[in-house]
Amino acid sequence: MKKVNDKTIAAISTPPGKGGIAVIRISGSDAIAIGDRMFKPKNGKKLSELDSAKMIYGDILYNGIAIDDGLASVFFSPHSYTGEDTVEINCHGGILLANKVLESAFLCGAEQASPGEFTKRAFLSGNISLTEAEAIAELIDAQSEGQLTLASSNSHGVLSCAITELYNRLSQLVAKIYVDIDYPGEDLVEFDKADILEELLFLINDIEKLSGTYQTGRAVAHGVSVVICGKPNTGKSSLMNMLLGKERAIVTSEAGTTRDIIEETVEAGCVLLRISDTAGIRKAENEAEKIGVEKTVEKIKEAELVLAVFDISSRPDGEDEKFIDELKSYLDKGGKAIGILNKSDLNVNKEALDRYSSVFEDKVIISAANKVGREEILKKAESLYIDGSIDIHTDAIAFNARQYASLCNAVRKLRDAYKAIEEGIEVDICGTDMELALASLGQTDGRTVTEDIVANIFSRFCVGK
After folding, report:
1. How far apart are CA 154 and CA 163, in angstroms?
2. For residues 56 and 79, what is the distance between their CA atoms, to the nearest angstrom?
3. In this structure, is the dihedral angle defined by the CA atoms of residues 155, 156, 161 and 162, taken in order, positive or negative?
4. What pTM does this model have?
């Protein structure tokens, strides 16, 4: 779906607001000519006369009149981010001034860039793969060290290279099969059914291994939605404050203090936990509390991880058992939970400790009041989502649902081909399944992706990137 862009675009590439500098980026076939009209180097040369990837000092013009002095960089196609002729003008970072420089670019023939259009052009020109483009978006939006590390790795092509290697292997296998079909008896290739099955099995295993990184990749790239829940006065808000390392939630001895949902983020190793502290689950005494409890129940249904808080200084009662039943239903549907057995600083009730311990495979005994157990909770949460055999710095990791779905589709089609060959079905029919698998692999890094998918991906970028 590669195509040539017929317009030259411009946008402010730096964040809005005052700053030391602002950068106006211009890209397209007329970028250098537009740059010559709006920037006059102090040495008397034109931008079109400069060497590529050089920066020069001069006057920035608006209708031929200097409005600022600054620096201009010129990048000739294909040696630029977009793969097109590109000019970047650095002016002083005033809000009005930056917009005036952009307006000058428009007056000289450029058009407003749409969100993500520069990176989209880099993809369409073949400078970057779709997985690299997606990683650049993640790099910009990173909120944690883990997100930054994974996004940086993939923006430099680690995942793309792994997909390319798999694509080339499968492409060679398909070509080998079709040569044998088109030129039977010519001995152009050695065709052996056992060899084909063996290579198919290797490919299936390798693609499955890559798709198996998705749980880790998703947890790192997008974080995990976590709900703190439990009966009133079990220490949920104290737990929230302990995890955050600051007093975010109001804590009192009165049950039911938390009515509305409080949301914050905490880093658990390389995973970002998106935590919600919720109202205590019990029979509501008034309309406000009823709404709070209903919100809690909805949050639990949406959560990827539940931190279920229990008071181990008191014997379990009917409300505890009802809460446990609700948690069991959540766990039976594939939900993940950590039992937070709180108030270990008080006299621990053995019946409570034994009962709650029996419910959870993963549990941590803590004292939120004394800030004891924080690191254990964070390590436990990280371990539920991160495969310890995966290195997010160096390994190829699938990090979004689109990539994961494409890899899974490729595996399904290869399994169909493997089964068909084993059962003696004609090889050309098996080749069709392999071609479909090849198309799915191509979708993963953008070789065969549709324009609708591309448009959706780049619409999430900011203007100027």
Report:
1. 12
2. 18
3. negative
4. 0.81
> b/e per residue, 456-465, with b = 16+ CB within 10 A?
ebbeebeebb
Q: Which token pair is 286?
A: 């008034």
188 pLDDT above the threshold of 50: no
How do 9-12 and 336-342 pair as beta strands? unpaired
How far, in Å, CA of 427 to CA of 177, rounded?
7
Q: What is the largest CA-CA distance in the chain?
A: 87
Q: Are 265 and 275 in contact (CB under 8 A)?
A: yes
Domain boundaries defined on the chain: 9-128, 132-213+397-445, 223-385
Residue 341 in tokens? 């057995």
Amino acid 183 reads: Y
Q: Say if residues 87 and 47 touch (Cβ distance below 8 Å).
A: yes
**Please, what is the Cα angle at 458 between 454 and 464, to 5 degrees?**
145
CA geometry: angle at 370 spanning 365 and 254, to 5°?
Answer: 95
- What fold is seen in the domain 9-128? Gyrase A; domain 2 (3.30.1360)
Mean pLDDT to the nearest integer, 320-332: 87
Written out in words, the top-level CATH class of the domain with range 132-213+397-445 is: mainly alpha
Q: Cα 273 from chain centroid?
A: 14
CA distance 8 to 110: 5
Q: How large is the average pLDDT for residues 42-71?
A: 94
Look at the domain 223-385 and name its fold: Rossmann fold (3.40.50)
Q: Give me 108's structure tokens.
A: 């000289």
Strand partners, 59: 40, 69
Tell me, what's the pLDDT at 175?
Answer: 83
Band of pLDDT at residue 382, cut at 50, 70 and 90: very high
Residue 101: its pLDDT value, please? 97
Per-residue pLDDT at 432 = 87
